[in-house]
Amino acid sequence: DADVTQTPRNRITKTGKRIMLECSQTKGHDRMYWYRQDPGLGLRLIYYSFDVKDINKGEISDGYSVSRQAQAKFSLSLESAIPNQTALYFCATSSARGYHEQYFGPGTRLTVT
Amino acid sequence: AQTVTQSQPEMSVQEAETVTLSCTYDTSENNYYLFWYKQPPSRQMILVIRQEAYKQQNATENRFSVNFQKAAKSFSLKISDSQLGDTAMYFCAFSIHSGTYKYIFGTGTRLKVLA
């Protein structure tokens, strides 16, 4: 079984709709992250959480919100989706110790029409 | 501002040959971590290799090694004995954990290994 899972894997939605992307992990890590990937721009950090009570904005948080429901679960919401939020979204986790390398989920391809 | 630059959008290499992917970064911090991640067509992001900035010795993981030049802020990845399965996008990244947390990715280099 995958250590970091994301649901859904693919989603098409209409402008103005609310959508939630979910992430779960079995790695036992305290830290979780949400990124978006756009062609030619690499990955950009949306939000991160170092524990259940700690939520922080990343580089591009406008238009997004998150919820850390438990150590193992971190959800990303688009309250009112717009076409330029069409992207590949990744959830990642890391340990608070060591090198801080991140472990990624399989990604969610989101298309907003 | 902290940035990561990968100046080679695309590269190709013959199977069994060696290839080097370039990465430069900019930061005023002294303590940070550097990474190379691989993203094959399956789109899964996979850690290839990592390096702590305070360690002078270059990291090595099997066929993958880095050339870390801290003064030049350069962190290149060398892939030896290239295999078809190495075909992927490669992203350089660094993280800073003092003050505001940052994890910055470059824009990637698309590597194609030719049979």
Plain-language structure description:
- The complex is a heterodimer of chains A (113) and B (115).
- In chain A, strand 4 (31-38) and strand 5 (42-51) form a beta hairpin.
- Chain A has strands at 4-7, 10-13, 19-25, 31-38, 42-51, 54-57, 65-70, 73-78, 87-94, 103-104, 108-112.
- Chain A is globular, with a radius of gyration of 13 Å.
- Helices cover 0% and strands 57% of the residues of chain A.
- Chain A is an all-beta fold and 113 residues long.
- Chain B is an all-beta fold and 115 residues long.
- In chain B, 36% of the residues are buried.
- The model of chain B has no long low-confidence stretch (mean pLDDT 93).
- Chain B contains no helices and 12 strands.
- Chain B is 0% helix and 53% strand.
- Chain A binds chain B through residues 33, 40-45, 48, 50, 56, 88, 90, 92, 99-104, 106-107, and chain B through 4, 33, 35, 42-47, 50, 52, 91, 93, 95, 97, 101-103, 105-108.
Q: Which keywords apply here?
A:
heterodimer, A: 113 residues, seven-stranded mixed beta sheet, 11 strands, 0% helix, B: 115 residues, mainly beta, six-stranded mixed beta sheet, 12 strands
Q: In a few lines, what is going on in this structure?
A:
With 113 residues, chain A is mainly β. In chain A, 0% of the residues lie in helices and 57% in strands. In chain B, 36% of the residues are buried.
Assembly category: heterodimer
Radius of gyration of chain A: 13 Å
Compute the CA-based radius of gyration of chain B: 14 Å
Please, what is the average pLDDT of chain A? 93
Relative helix content of chain B? under 10%
SSE topology:
The complex is a heterodimer of chains A (about 110) and B (about 120).
Chain A (H helix, E strand, L loop, with lengths): L3 E4 L2 E4 L5 E7 L5 E8 L3 E10 L2 E4 L7 E6 L2 E6 L8 E8 L8 E2 L3 E5 L1
Parallel strand pairs in A: 2-11
Antiparallel strand pairs in A: 1-3, 3-8, 4-5, 4-9, 5-6, 7-8, 9-10, 9-11
Chain B lengths: L2 E3 L4 E5 L4 E3 L2 E3 L6 E7 L6 E7 L7 E2 L2 E6 L4 E6 L8 E9 L5 E4 L3 E6 L1
Parallel strand pairs in B: 2-12
Antiparallel strand pairs in B: 1-4, 3-9, 5-6, 5-10, 7-8, 8-9, 10-11, 10-12
